[in-house]
């Protein structure tokens, strides 16, 4: 399949492109940052320019759209620039893909749609599936909510196939030994509950979602199978975050409360990379932080 990846020059984009190319797909990387170290043709473009974007999109049949300002507080963008730019570029990408009758559209949404990415809102339900209430707390999350709704509208009116992935924090690069060693010494329990996803697992997830197409609009949470914290999850919540809801009594020590069951059910994906597995390979045990 000929697939466009927007924003493919970033670290996550590189992982996605490498997985897609490795599975035999022909990939075009559309970005404003040159990148020639990946198996994809690079094309410089501003995604808000329909006159330039449409001829390029006419060459493909599916798209993985990541080409947005990636968060608030990045560079010197104001809130209105983040919201306005992301809504303009993504709505155009969606509209063109619908007009060109693309086989599949994948969109990188965010945990920010729940208001859970920046610490302004507390978790109201645990664990979290795709029915969790939407309540964005910044302009980045607000744009994601608006664009998910626009994608849903296009699916209803144009018969598109769109999958939106609400990503948590992304792990890229090497894991240093001192980071693993620090899991035994950990005394702080993070409010974001140490939920994450590895870039390589995002690539595998996107590839499987492209290849197992599903009609209509669907939302997916995805994460690593376990959190990246040395403190067991239920114990950490009870001791450090008593205001949060409790997990079930039989919840496994480190299992991620950000559920990916739907992605597994719809196209067979499950995460492979897990930071705690690296710790166990090194020490032959789980972390043992000494809490006061």
Q: Secondary-structure map with pairings?
A:
Elements: E1 2-6, H1 11-22, E2 26-31, E3 41-44, H2 50-57, E4 62-65, H3 79-99, E5 104-110, H4 139-158, E6 161-167, E7 169-171, H5 177-181, E8 196-198, H6 199-211, E9 216-221, H7 233-240, H8 261-267, H9 275-283
Parallel strand pairs: 1-2, 1-4, 2-3, 4-5, 5-6, 6-9, 7-8
Helix pairs in contact: 1-6, 2-3, 3-4
Written description of the protein model:
The protein is of the alpha/beta class. It has a single domain (2-172, 192-225, 252-271), classed as Rossmann fold (3-Layer(aba) Sandwich), CATH 3.40.50. The protein contains nine helices and nine strands. The protein has helices at residues 11-22, 50-57, 79-99, 139-158, 177-181, 199-211, 233-240, 261-267, 275-283, and strands at 2-6, 26-31, 41-44, 62-65, 104-110, 161-167, 169-171, 196-198, 216-221. The mean pLDDT is 95.
Count all strands and give the number. Answer: 9
Per CATH, the class reads: Alpha Beta
Rounded radius of gyration (Å): 19 Å
What portion of residues is helical?
A: 25-40%
Distance, first to last CA? 55 Å
Q: What does the largest sheet look like?
A: 7 strands, parallel
CATH fold descriptor:
Rossmann fold
Instruction: Report the uncertain regions.
Output: none
Structural class: alpha/beta
Estimate the global geometry from the Cα principal axes.
Answer: globular
CATH superfamily: NAD(P)-binding Rossmann-like Domain
- List SSEs in N-to-C order: EHEEHEHEHEEHEHEHHH
Mean pLDDT: 95
Question: Mind telling me which CATH architecture this is?
Answer: 3-Layer(aba) Sandwich
């Amino acid at each position: 399949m000929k697939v466009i990846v927007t924003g493919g020059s970033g670290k996550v984009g590189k992982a996605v492109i490498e997985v897609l190319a490795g599975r035999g797909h022909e990939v075009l990387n559309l970005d404003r940052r040159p990148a020639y170290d990946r198996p994809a043709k690079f094309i410089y473009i501003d995604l808000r320019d329909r006159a330039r974007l449409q001829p390029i999109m006419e060459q493909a049949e599916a798209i993985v759209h990541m080409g947005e300002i990636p968060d608030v507080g990045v560079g010197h963008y104001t809130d209105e620039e983040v919201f306005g730019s992301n809504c303009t570029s993504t709505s155009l990408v969606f509209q063109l893909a619908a007009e060109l009758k693309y086989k599949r559209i994948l969109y990188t949404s965010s945990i920010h749609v729940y208001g859970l990415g920046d610490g302004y809102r507390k978790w109201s339900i645990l664990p979290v599936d795709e029915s969790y209430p939407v309540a964005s707390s910044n302009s980045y999350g607000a744009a994601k909510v608006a664009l998910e709704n626009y994608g849903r509208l296009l699916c209803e009116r144009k018969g598109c196939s769109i999958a939106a992935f609400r990503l948590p924090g992304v792990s890229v690069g090497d894991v240093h030994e001192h980071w693993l060693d620090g899991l035994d010494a950990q005394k702080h329990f993070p409010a974001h509950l140490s939920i994450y996803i590895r870039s390589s697992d995002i690539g595998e997830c996107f590839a499987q979602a492209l290849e197992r197409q599903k009609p209509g609009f669907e939302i997916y949470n995805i994460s690593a199978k376990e959190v990246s914290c040395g403190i067991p999850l239920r114990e950490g919540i009870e001791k450090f975050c008593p205001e949060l809801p409790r997990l079930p009594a039989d919840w496994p020590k480190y299992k991620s409360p950000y559920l990916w069951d739907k992605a597994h059910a719809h196209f067979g994906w499950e995460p492979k990379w897990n930071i705690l597995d690296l710790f166990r390979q090194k020490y032959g045990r789980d972390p043992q932080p000494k809490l006061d």
